[in-house]
Amino acid sequence: MGIYLNTTAAYDAYLKEFNSPYFVDKSAMLEELIPRIDTGTNCICITRPRRFGKSVMANMIASFFSRECKAGEIFDRLRIADSGLYREHRGMYDVIFISFNELPRKCQSYEQYIGRIEDRLLKDLRKVYPEAEISEEDAVWDALGAVYHVYDAKKFIFVLDEWDYIFHRDFVTEQDKKRYIDFLSNCFKGKAYVSLAYMTGILPIAKYSSGSELNMFLEYTMATEEMFGGYFGFTDSEVDELYARFTARQKDAAVTRKGLRIWYDGYHTKQGGRVYNPRSVVASLTNNNLGNYWTSAGPYDEIFYYIEHNIGEVRDDLALMVSGIPVPAKVCEYAATSMNLMTKDEIFSAMVVYGFLSYENGFVSIPNKELMNKFSDMLMKEPSLGYVNSLARMSSQMLKATLEADTAKMCEILEFAHNSETPLMNYNRESELAAIVNLVYLSARDFYRIEREDRAGTGYVDFIFYPETDRKADGIILELKVDHTPEEALRQIKEKKYAMKFEGKAGENPKYSGRVLGVGIAYDRKTKAHTCRVEILRKAGG
Q1: What is the pLDDT of residues 246-276, one digit of tens each?
Q2: Distance, CA of 160 to CA of 299 (rounded, Å)
Q3: Which of 48, 129, 363, 525 has the most CB atoms in a 10 Å sphere around its CB?
Q4: With contact defined as beta carbons under 8 Å apart, do 262 and 369 qualify?
Q5: Is residue 460 one of the residues assigned to a domain?
Q6: How many helices and strands (H and E) does the chain possess?
Q7: How far is it, in rounded angstroms, from Cα 200 to Cα 45?
Q8: Closest CA to 156 of 147, 165, 164, 167
Q9: If you ran DSSP here, which 8-state letter would residue 234 be given?
Q10: Where are the alpha helices (DSSP H) in 308-386?
Q11: Strand order across the 327-328 sheet
Q12: Residue 180 · residue 188 · CB < 8 Å
């Protein structure tokens, strides 16, 4: 056993995952990998956003194939055990497993970084294959080639996690990146000692090099390739299963199944399947709390890094997406490798690659509440976003005016929104008015769970605001009308009994004990005027 060669580190990590109460069996992926061994398609690169389970799958693959791991105690209980290929391949290979996200102490140069990797691997090879006569000065590919020739065509399975980690380090130059690409090419391109090379990362490799250095890798992305799509992130059915486990073990469950969908769903596979952020789902169930688990260096700095490259290009589309409207985009995932993102499509492409936006059928959108909160935070704090920032900052005033039934102030804010540069200003349909309402109530998301087109009473309400941080706070039912009156909106709220959503089940106390407000907002296209009405539908404690 070495540091990289037949290490048990991947097995130890996967065993911890396996013992987790919210472990998901994705071992069926091995059935798709095994037929690639010793073929012309044996170099595979999986690229996905962060927190989508890439490292978990890399640990699984290394644990399964390595002759050192003896991992039957895990895999005998997983789906792969039912495969006819199982006994033939489990624990039958020498595996070289490298996590490229590890740096040497006080690392300040590419030479220190890559030198550590080379030295460790050469040390492993010299120890296990002494007859190959490997020297400390040998290139890694020469050493592996020597082992192949001296030890009866010895081959390896390579599992390489986070191949692109080095591209995010400040000390790495453009020349260093080219040298790194050459390093990978020399290690794997056309090499007889490679039985299988499985590589993961965030950045796509297809367009990273100017030539054909890495064209031996077949790349599988979430947006463009169907194969392996179900193995990264959680599917709807997998979250159903996890939620059943959660309710069985958790008394007084505060997390709902619907809440998981609202907070962490929103990504899509190439074939249209729903994908949840797995890290956030597990954290939410573990903590019995629906919250923000998307970690970053700051509340919005990672998102704004991409947007600031060309704010003028993306500002209007950002207003649309924050309002819940998908935006057309030509996503070229390789654009994420550029640090000089100039066009809107390049900016959105990078944000898709890093998981800040989802992409489906030619449109990008903000995937879920967890990310929407990050975007909202950015809108509230970034003055360079112009009118979008102004609307976001006014949203706290809009909520206050609504709760105080200050309809004059509400109309004033709506007029400001309508007279701004927003691309929604035409109000040709109620959906456009609804998008503006999303913007002017942006800050309400800090205190309310806002549902759009929610089933209530005998119909579907345009907006319903459920108090989240304080169950004694006022609930809000908001109905929109174009070329009608706010009184008609309020009449619809009452006739269709939308306020029943705030009542408890028969024989139970209401879940929310504050007032319930009915809010009608109308816009007249002839007069270009907004009118608002607020009415108390239920008194506090009623």
Answers
A1: 999 998 999 999 999 999 999 987 777 889 9
A2: 31
A3: 48
A4: yes
A5: yes
A6: 19, 15
A7: 6
A8: 147
A9: B
A10: 311-322, 344-353, 369-381
A11: 327-328, 363-365, 358-360
A12: no
Q: 297 pLDDT band (50/70/90 cuts)? A: very low
Please report whether residue 4 resides in a domain: no
> What percent of the chain clears pLDDT 90, i.e. is strictly above it?
57
Contact by Cβ (8 Å): 306, 356: yes
Average pLDDT over every residue of 30-42: 97
Write down the H helix ranges in 331-470: 344-353, 369-381, 387-403, 407-419, 430-440
Beta pairing class for 194-201 and 156-161: parallel
The two structure tokens encoding residue 477? 């039912």
* Tens-place pLDDT, residues 121-141: 999 999 999 999 999 999 999
Helix 369-381 / helix 387-403 crossing angle, nearest 10 deg: 110
Same domain, 81 and 179: yes
Instruction: For 409-459, write each residue's pLDDT tens digit.
Output: 999 999 888 877 666 656 556 667 777 888 899 989 888 988 888 787 788
Mean pLDDT within 264-289 = 90
Same domain, 401 and 477: yes
The residue out of 385, 408, 435 marking a domain boundary is 385
**Cα–Cα distance measured from residue 308 to residue 381, given in angstroms and rounded to the nearest whole number:** 13
Residue 329 Cα distances to 142, 178, 272, 295, angstroms: 45, 30, 17, 26
CA–CA distance, 79 with 241 (Å, rounded to integer): 16
pTM for the structure as a whole: 0.87
DSSP state of 189: T
Token pair for 41: 């398609």
Q: Are residues 407 and 485 in the same domain?
A: yes
In a domain, 167, yes or no: yes
Do the beta carbons of residue 323 and residue 438 sit within 8 Å? Answer: yes
What pLDDT is attached to residue 340? 60
Let me know whether 358 and 477 are in one domain: no
Compute CA distances 228 → 45, 48, 164, 271, whole Å: 11, 11, 20, 11
How high is the mean pLDDT of the chain? 89
Residue 7 contacts residue 59 (beta carbons within 8 Å): no
Question: How high is the pLDDT of residue 350?
Answer: 83
Phi, psi of 498 (to 5 degrees): -60, -30
Contact 151, 132 (CB under 8 A): yes
pLDDT at site 210: 55
What domain range includes position 446? 387-538
Give the least confident one: 96-100, 197-201, 503-507: 503-507
Kindly tell me if the per-residue pLDDT of 518 is higher than 80: yes
